[in-house]
Structures are given as structure tokens and as C-alpha cells.
Q: What sequence folds into this?
């Protein structure tokens, strides 16, 4: 987004709204005034975007969430209100680096439908199929295996998937994203077989078989 567009956007609006559906749901890392749970229409969440910085490396790219156009689907997430010129400039500069420069995401404006039935325009960072890090469709077992072995500057790719699944399960019960929760279950199964630990709400615990079976049954 050019600075000229950014300046004109900020001059017109006292606040802007940014929609998160991946790590932005549980780790926005910018100052916001308020947030709302809701959805955008016409997309599905897919772990088809490669990542060689936050959750992967050039030799072992991680997989992070992106949005794929799908007329019949909705993606639930979190819309953040960023108010005031300084906070907007700072947040968009940060997001431009985190999402666009490092992550290969573009910005689009979509209609957001809040849980409280309000609607508003939101800025969404979505990685198009043309960007250099796009990996595209892949079967769940292969994706889970790739994710299990990928680590980046922000932490493990496993943490990225499980933190997102936990956030959605806890805060957005309307979201039934089969792709996300199936991938989580594959990762939990592989974690159990490899007897490694699993992060739950900022604590690292050994993954017990009960938790694994409990997850698969939900
Ligand atoms: N744009 C999506 C996905 C954002 C995302 O997951 N970006 C990654 C890769 S560029 C990121 O910033 N990760 C930070 C982290 O993994 O801790 C969202 O709205 O949440």
C-alpha cells in the first residue's frame, strides 16, 4: 500500500479495522482500541502459504494460513479497531513488514459481519496464489509432517497451527473449519507418536494419549 494511499485513508478515517484469521487472531502485536469476532464471506482458510521467516526457513519452509476464494464459504476471525493517526501509521507499517514484505501477503478490503450483527469494511492480508511463497494444495498427512519439522524466528510451525486451533475452539465456536481442526489432529497424532511436547495456553506439556484421543473425538 503506497504511503499516499495510506495517508489519504488515514485522513478520511478516525479509525480503521484489520481482520485476522491466522496468527493475527492470537498474536496481533499492535495497539488496538477494540476487537470483534465475526466473519468475512467468500473465502476458506487453507494452510497453503509457505513461510521462510516466522515459522520456517528457506530449506524447510513452514505452512501458514491464507485465504482462498470460495463463494459458498465464510471465514471467522477477529477484527481489530485501530484508532488515531499515530496508532494507524504504526500498526500498518508493522503489518506491512510482517505480512507483506516477509509473508507475501497482499491487502484487500472486504465486508466484515460481526457477531453482534454490525457490518464494516476491514483490511485483510491474504496471500494470492501468485506470490513466491505460495505452496498450494497438499494432503493432510504430508502437510502435518512438513509442519512438524518446520521452525522459524517466531517459533515452531506446530505452535502456529495448534495456537490458532486452540484460539478458534475457545473464542469462536461458530467456526467449524474442518481443514484447520483436521490438520491439528494429524499434528497431535504425530506429536504423540514422536513423544514430543505440546503447548497449551503458554505452557508446554507432554501430549498425553487422553488429550490426543480427546482432541480427535471433538
Ligand atoms: N494474514 C493472516 C495470517 C497472518 C500470519 O499468520 N502471518 C504469519 C506469517 S507472515 C505471521 O505473521 N506469523 C507470526 C507468527 O508466526 O508468530 C492473518 O490475518 O492472521
A:
Amino acid at each position: 500500500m503506497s504511503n499516499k494511499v495510506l495517508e489519504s485513508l488515514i485522513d478520511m478515517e478516525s479509525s480503521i479495522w484489520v481482520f485476522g484469521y491466522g496468527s493475527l487472531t492470537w498474536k496481533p502485536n499492535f495497539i488496538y482500541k477494540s476487537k470483534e469476532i465475526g466473519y468475512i464471506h467468500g473465502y476458506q482458510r487453507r494452510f497453503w502459504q509457505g513461510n521462510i521467516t516466522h515459522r520456517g526457513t528457506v530449506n524447510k519452509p513452514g505452512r501458514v494460513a491464507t485465504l482462498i476464494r470460495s463463494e459458498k464459504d465464510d471465514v471467522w476471525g477477529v477484527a481489530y479497531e485501530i484508532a488515531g493517526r499515530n496508532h494507524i501509521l504504526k500498526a500498518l507499517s508493522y503489518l506491512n513488514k510482517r505480512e507483506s514484505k516477509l509473508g507475501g501477503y497482499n491487502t484487500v478490503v472486504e465486508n466484515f459481519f460481526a457477531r453482534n450483527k454490525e457490518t464494516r469494511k476491514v483490511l485483510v492480508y491474504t496471500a494470492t496464489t501468485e506470490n513466491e511463497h505460495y505452496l498450494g494444495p497438499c494432503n493432510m498427512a504430508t502437510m502435518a509432517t512438513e509442519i512438524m519439522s518446520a521452525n522459524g524466528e517466531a517459533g515452531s510451525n506446530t505452535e502456529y497451527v495448534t495456537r490458532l486451533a486452540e484460539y478458534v475452539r475457545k473464542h469462536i465456536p461458530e467456526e467449524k473449519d474442518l481443514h484447520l481442526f483436521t490438520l491439528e489432529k494429524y499434528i497431535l497424532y504425530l506429536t504423540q507418536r514422536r513423544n514430543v511436547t505440546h503447548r497449551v495456553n503458554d505452557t508446554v506439556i507432554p501430549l498425553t494419549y487422553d488429550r490426543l484421543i480427546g482432541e480427535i473425538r471433538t
Summary: The domain at 3-200 is CATH 3.10.490.10 (Hypothetical upf0131 protein ytfp).
